[in-house]
Write a structure and sequence with these properties.
- The chain is mostly beta strands and 235 residues long.
- The protein is built from 1 helix and 20 strands.
- A hairpin with a 2-residue loop joins strand 14 and strand 15.
- The protein is globular.
- It starts with a strand and ends with a strand.
- 25% of the residues are buried.
């Protein structure tokens, strides 16, 4: 079963015919050949590329007939814009961010059944559902990343005045609290209030925090509480 943009393939009579291929993202790197030298010189990047996840599906349209059923499938796949959450029943512990561009070529069987391959273009990360659980931290608490990949968390910082939040070796200075709480999105490298107002001017962060291995999280000054959504991920 596929879960795309908050809706299930079962709702559209789309049945995955077989276990999908398990595809792992490739590392981004540049390779350069040097005349007279064996092999290539590689320049690896600390990033991975998108990949295509394919699902071979069967569409049942005995009541609607295939053209009408496929219009519903097209609305399900193409209606959402940009990256959306993609999950399936074959790996229930993770989900991905993906977009669907199409087209969808359907083999019609008597206008009542159809077979097709749905292709989603996925970001490289498989996010662990455990990483979406928000944790109320204690000052000086140590978090252990369960994967070898640096996670970029979502931090919710509450305080009454200026303070410094330290995650491992990286420091974030909260210069002022215009509201009691400021949110630090380390993936987007953005600071905002709970209602979405920009608060980058109240924060000084030469490098936004990342979680890699075991890391201590502590704070000083007017900071009174910190919550974290770790956003653990793997390939």
């Amino acid at each position: 079963m596929i879960f795309w943009a908050g809706k299930s393939s079962d709702d559209y009579r789309v049945i995955v015919e077989k276990y999908p291929s398990v595809i792992l993202a490739a590392r981004k790197l540049d390779a350069q050949a040097v005349p007279g030298r064996n092999g290539d010189i590689i320049f690896p990047q600390a990033a991975f590329g998108n990949y295509v996840q394919r699902y071979e599906v069967y569409v049942s349209a005995e009541q609607l007939r295939l053209p009408a059923a496929m219009r519903g499938v097209a609305a399900w796949l193409c209606g959402p814009r940009g990256y959306q959450t993609l999950a399936d029943s074959y790996d229930i512990d993770t989900y991905r961010q993906a977009y669907y561009a199409g087209p969808l070529d359907v083999d019609s069987i008597l206008h009542r059944f159809g077979r097709a391959t749905i292709e989603f273009n996925c970001k490289p990360q498989r996010f662990l559902r455990t990483g979406d659980t928000e944790i109320q931290l204690e000052n000086g608490q140590v978090l252990n990343n369960p994967t070898p990949f640096a996670a970029k968390p979502l931090l919710t910082v509450t305080g009454t005045g200026p303070g410094v939040l330290t995650v491992g070796s990286r420091e974030v200075e909260i210069k002022s609290f215009l509201e009691p709480t400021v949110v630090l999105d380390c993936e987007a490298q953005n600071a905002y209030s709970p209602d979405g107002a920009n608060r980058n001017g109240t924060v000084s962060a030469p490098e936004f925090p990342e979680l890699e291995g075991k890391m201590e999280i502590k704070w000083t000054g007017g900071i009174t509480a910190v919550k974290i959504r770790p956003r653990w991920w793997t390939l």
